[in-house]
What does this fold into?
Amino acid sequence: MSIVTSEGTVGIVLKNVSASPLPAGEIKKYDRLCILVDVSSCIGCRACEAACRQWHDLNPKVPDEKDPFTGYQTFSDLQANYFTLMKFNEVETEKGVEWFITKYQCMHCEDPGCLKACPYPGAIIQYGNGVVDFDHSKCTGCKYCVSGCPFNVPRYDERCKPWKCNFCLDRVLAGLEPACVKTCPTNALSFGTKEEMLRKAGKIVEELKKRGYKNPVIYDPKGVGGTGYIYVLPYGERIEDYGLPKDPSVSLAITLWKGPLKWIGSLALWGTVAGAILHYIVYGPKKMKKINKEEG
Amino acid sequence: MAARFGRGAMTNSWEDIKNADVILVMGGNPAENHPCGFYWALKARRDRGAKIICVDVRYTRTAAVSDIFVQIRPGTDLAFIGGLINYVIQNKKYNVEYVRHFTNATYIVKDTYSFDPETGLFSGYDPNSRKYDTNLWDYEKDNNGNVKKDMSMEHPRCVFQLLKQFYSRYTPEVVEKITGVPKERFLEIAKIVAETGSPDKSMTHLYALGWTQHSFGVQLIGSMAILQLLLGNIGVPGGQIGALRGHSNVQGATDLAATWSNLPGYLKQPKADDETLQKYIENNTPKPLDDGAMNFWSNTSKFIVSLLKAFYGDNATKENDFCYDYLPKIDKAPSWDAIIDNMYKGKIEGLAALGVNLLCNSPNAKKTLKALSNLKWLVVIDPFETETASFWEKLDKPRENQTEVLILPSAVMGEKEGSKTSSSRRITWTYKVVDPPGEAKNEYWILGKLFVKLRELYQKEGGKFPDPILKAYWPYKNPYEPHPEELLAEINGIALEDITDDKGNVVAKKGERLPGFIHLKDDGSTLCGCWIYSGVFPQSGNRAKSVDLSDPSGLGIYPNFAFTWPANRRILYNRASANPEGKPWSPQKRLIWWNEKENKWVGHDVPDIKPDLPPSYAPFIMLPEGRGRLFSCKYLVDGPFPEFYEPVESSVPNLLHPKTRYSPVVKIYKSEVDVLGSPDKFPYVATNYRITEHYHFFTKFLVGPSILAPKMFIELPEELAKEKGIQKGEKIRVVSARGAVEGYALPTKRIKPLNINGEKVYVVGIPIHWGFKGIAKGSIANLITPFVFDPNSFTPEFKGFLCNVEKIK
It folds into this structure.
């Protein structure tokens, strides 16, 4: 899906690569990229969806009689050929009925569950700028990334390859903003470094408070180390009504698998090596004779 | 708006919305239908804490980002605005000096005007012809023809007192009973709106078809004009009535006389009693009614003669009245509705549909279908094979239909070059990017070829009245395909002799393009196709192409970005941004002001007044009063003050005057298909609208928008769906007295059942974008709408009619 490979052919720094040791290098000096979704100025026009579809040359089928009717929402869920989806949810608040309209796509987690779960070296990459991407040439289609994702994002195509938002990395590296941000008519989407976006989000939260919202929040979930997509949500106590998980985190099994319990795997590996050495010391090299005998 | 302010266009610009303190969205849904322009409303809130108020018949995506939303019953907006007018007057929140000096509040009205609140009728009503004698509604005048005034506004028959009395009936309680908006919510909004009567505050109102498509649409907009005049919100930054246009060039089409009632530049269409040019000029050159009235239409002779020169070139001479005789003299409106009705009656032989999908966008599609089938021939000039072009497919016996349909595929934007005029009256240039596909051609080519061929035929074969064609001015380098810049030059105006200003300096040599309309002459020495556009293409170059984004004032004026008619003024009536002495009302709203040293108007915008006219001159220069009209005299056929009437099809009685339920002068047809429904059979109120994903009946031919909104759907309150046992996604049918449409049910919390004076009213919403051609298919929404029209503008009543809902088994 991306013109960028794990070898970094367009010259950006890698931060994390699936099933591989951390690459060396000064990662810290690279700014994390971020898209801010200001839900309070989003008009749900779906221009971001259209721009995403155009830029990535996606061709989902026009729904017909047989497909379910999904109202204002384009599809009932993300698709392998549809990377971003506006979710529409009607809720009752103290102001009366309100329409929660939220953009939904890969969140580009700082601590990406997909990447952690992926057992194949280089199939999932996290760049120094925080963008998480797939390399289909190295992917075997095991779908661990789906079970690893706390936001339930990657979707598999009929060739068993996963697809999702890649932050329009090709545009970004050419100095352009992602297609969805470029097209947003009300500036509900903005693009910049994480630091800038957090600052901007903070300002919007203050404005919302002035406008009478009791609990507006910035959605930048700590359970995944923060995200590359952050949201300003006017009703902080109703996160799930916006279609976002309240407290997402990488599942325990995967964290353990890659974290504290890694030593078990390591132990097994090194144990085998140590055992082999010990075996060599105790029993000496395998006798070729025996083999020859067997051959004979 | 033309009847109240003098010009029927958005008074300010899209960018100016950012200067507003309050943005009242009523009769439109800009977040969905004008998403890019709506940016400026959100900017106003972001940068200056403006309040966005949305009053709509359903919770829209505009409501989703508004500070306040209230749901109103379809067709009752006028009662709501009437209530606001009453609130502003009763609580003395109006801008007194603005009202006194810049409106006709002080004028004394003749005692032949009266209004009977019992019957809901103004004086002069004739029930047989269903018309008013509008001449009874006039000012008292002195012997010199000047109006009589009472500057204290105390005289019982001065406009202000009449207005106060008229709207005193619109109390918050009455508003609640009619509209369904709870009194407290109404008062909450009234308080915010009324605060903009303060000189340092302004309110922008945004509306679109949600206000025009009523049997009282013009009066509804008039009621807002009255409110904005009372609050002193016209002519100032951030204060406007924003008439939002749908198509990118609707404003341009109107300016260049797409409607029957005007010639280009809003010159009046000649009538039968305008027998000669002299008479036409006399009848259309008003005399000033008051001191300080600049009365710009005193220039009518210059505009009409220059227009005739553009129509007939050298053939138009002083001796032959500049070929004025060639213009048709029209008394009976050949408006949209009349054309369809005459086609239906078999009185029209052929029709050319250019830029219109008549079958989809006209009310009561069944009638349009029959009307089209009566034609001998039909030419459809359109980028797509529309429903109109394929109407015969829907006839009972298509094979028996005799209409010959000719389809000329045309080009879309990007496939041709030319100008377009936005809501902000701004003329910008669009360039050609690709060739049109296949055999499609741009309209310059199609119409150029057509004209030359017609002229040839008239030359060879003669005809009943060949002169208007044979003597038409057709000076283009390639007569088969005029270049858009050649056309723009003609629209801008060209000097046919050396033209000098009043000091004798030559401003344009013979053959050069004119710098502006102040140089137009009535002696045949200038040519101008649309006087208000003059200045767009001066000798120095095409200003529509200018993309200078500098904005020195910071007010969103962008003085050198493209060209805004008239004379590059961004805010109309901007003399009203300064008080009667010529000083800005407040430092926050500084736009133009009177410079005493230089004795002229200066400031950030081009003054909408002759720059050296002293402050005693009033801002509404297109009106003979010079003042905005709170009382519109005889200029509208349905009353000088806007009165609330129910839609023609309504489920409840008129609370104010049960004897006159709907507008007494509404245009109704009475053929066998023009039927109206009653609430016993059709108990629910229907309204129709557009959604952001589609553009009219056009984008359903394209893949992208069809993915986003593939299926026709119908929105209905959850409570109604429950009553009827309807689930989301089930197919349902909406039936009116005229027909039925089918779509997928979308039960929603966003349309609540209303309590109207104790009665439960359900509203059903029908997006309109589908048809039987293209990728995304569905019912034609207009199969159920009534063939009922506003008597002033002839706009159909789409927003509020009766229906029933049934499940398809």
User: Anything to note?
Assistant: Chain B is about 25% helix and 15% strand. The mean pLDDT of chain B is 96. Residues 733 and 742 of chain B are 4 Å apart (CA to CA).
